[in-house]
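Recall the central idea of this unit: under ordinary conditions, the amino acid sequence of a chain determines the structure it adopts. In this exercise we apply that idea directly, starting from the sequence alone.
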Amino acid sequence: MPVNFASLLAVALFLLPMSVAQARVCEGDILLDTQQAVNAFNCTEVVGAVRIDGDFANVIDDLSPLAQLTTISGDLRIERNQSLTSLRGLASLTSVGGLVRIDRNPFLPDLQGLDGLVSIGGQLEISNNIRLVALNGLRSLRTVGGSLILFSNVLLERVDSLSSLDRVGGDLLISFNPVLTSLQGFRALREVQGRLRLHTNELLPHVAGFEELAQVNGSLSITSNLALADIDALSSLTTIGEDLQISGNPVLTQLDGLASLTAVGRTVTLAANVSVADLDGLAALESVGGDLTLVGQATLDDISGLRSLTSVGGTLHIRSNNSLANVDGFSNLTRIGSSLEIEFGLSLADLSGFRSLASVGGALYLRGNSSLTSLAGFESLTRLESDLYIRDHPALVELVGLEPLAQIGGDLFVRANDALSTLRGLDGLTSVGGNLELSGNPVLADTDALSSLSSVGGSVAITINGTLPNVDGLRSLTSVGDRLYVVDNEALGGCAVGLGPILEVYQTDTSVIGGAVEIRDNAPGCNTVAEILALSTSANDATVPVATALTAVYPNPSLGSVALSYTLAKPAEVTLAVYDLLGRRVATLVEGPQPAGAQDLEWTGGGLPTGTYLLRLDADGEVHTQRLTLVR
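Accordingly, the structure predicted from this sequence is:
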């Protein structure tokens, strides 16, 4: 039978357009906003973006005309499609170079149809799909170049279909998925380049699925997950590049899943996890690059898990941890780059855990710690770069523990401490760079511990200290940078000794006080400059001691010999002895009668071991004590 070449040619011409159609490349962004536009689509590859957007009004219910589409170089957006129930028409799609956003498709139950998708170059966002119950269709997905966001999918229970995913190039954000109960689909994930955030997933009981995750280059944030009981699956995590935040997880009881974590690049915040009683899970943590915040941990009573921590680069903030009685977990902390803030600790009575702290780059801020009676624990701190703020401590009776502190770079505020009777502990202070304020301390009885203070860079304000009889401790003050304000101290009549010397110089050299001088509404003897000068001792007698006191113990802490100085207001029978913290006398330095005036001696330590001791000066029954730390 003869070959019908015409027929063959016709068949060839018929097939050729189909072959060409199978490899059709479309350039530019494509908007498919109606079913008609979808039906007209005939591209296998798009160099640009594809957007399937029904705008909540147009019916798009069949994506099968997209069945030949294999590659999109830009973004794929499937948004606001009221009638869309399946993505099966995208079954040939293997690669999207930009982001994939599947958002506000209210009748979409799963992602079947994306089964061939292996890589997404940009972000994957699946959000606000109110009937989405599973991520079926993403089983082949291995890499997401940008962020992976699962947000507000109210029926999504599991993420098992992400089991091939081993890397997220941006953030992993899982938030507001109220029935999500499992993260097992992330079991192959080893690295998150950006942040990992688990926020307000009310039924999530644990983070099982993250067992292989070793590194989060951004922040790790686990917040407001009401059913979260443990984070044990994070046991491989060694490094967090930015912040660690664990807050508002009410049934979380421990942080043991962070046992391998050694470094956090920026801040650590633990707040309002009301069932966490200890921080043992942080036992490997050596450094925090930024702030460390412990706030509102209602049952936290043990922070010994922080014992490996040596450095906090920012602020250390300890606030409203009502069960915390001590800070022993900071026993190896030597440096705080910014401030140390300790506030509103109802049970906090012991700061000795800070005994190694030698440097605070900012302020020391102590407020409202109702069980605190002294500041023992700061014996290694010699300088503050900023403020010392001591306020609202109803049981604080003295400032013992601050003896080595010689310089305060900012303000010194001692305010509203109801039981504070003495400033003992500030004996080594020589300069305050900012303001000095003593106010509202109703039983403060003396300022003798300030006898070494010579300069205040700002103002001096002494107000509303109801029982303060004198300010003799200010007798060495030679320079005040701003105003001198002594007002409303109803028992204060003794200003001549403490303020007389600087006011006498001020009569001829006003530069010694940089601002106004306001002295009024005190007891007789301390209401005007003229009154004070009339009672003041002469310049020739200004160096005669007028009070019995232990005036200097240096150095403290001491590695060897200690220089001791004290003054006697009058001849007295004197005993100067050293006691250990059990009250046993371990050394007697002076015993016998001595004349009035300044006394100095050097003590070698008498072979006593490393520890903290009390120096006790008894002059005819008038007793003064000061702590001394020996380091061998």
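The mean pLDDT is 91.
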